Amino acid sequence: MTSPALDLDRREKWLAMLQELNSDVDPQTVRLVDRMRMVSHALYQLGEQSLENAGLSYARFRILLCLLRSEEMDGRIALTPSELSHRQGISRNTASTLLRDLEEEGYIERRLDPDDRRRFNIQLTPQGSALVRRYAADHFHAVAGIFEALTPGEQKQLDALLITLGESVEAARHKLAREP
Predict the structure, then answer these.
(1) What is the per-residue pLDDT for 1?
(2) Sign of the alpha-carbon dihedral angle for 136, 141, 153, 30
(3) CATH fold for domain 56-133
């Protein structure tokens, strides 16, 4: 592991290189993106650690939780693989792999859609529902604990800032999609 001073030196060299590549780049924005990526990665790792006892990856837990939420909040006991991949922000291939694993472990069932026999619907099994309910409290307690470092006001401010950034990211993505 490198020392914080060496990490800082490497980061400063990286920022200098970016400035050379494009002098319009604001080093502060690059720092913010890098810091957000690091925090996001650390949150993901925390999510993984909080679920070790369940024998689930964070990605598989999120699928189960999405199905439970759909069942409890929307009254829909099943979702299509496409809906799950969209709601989780993952590719269809990734969703397919996660669903296959969850099905093999008996946590979900795949059933033909009665209205469109070309589609499958995914739903929790009683075993999957019990598993997600058992470990959700521990998981959310571990993740929520990190926000105790912020006051309630700071949490609201962070939420508002993240919403604004999310909207900006979506606008940038749409702009890039339209460019040749």
Answers:
(1) 58
(2) negative
(3) Arc Repressor Mutant, subunit A (1.10.10)
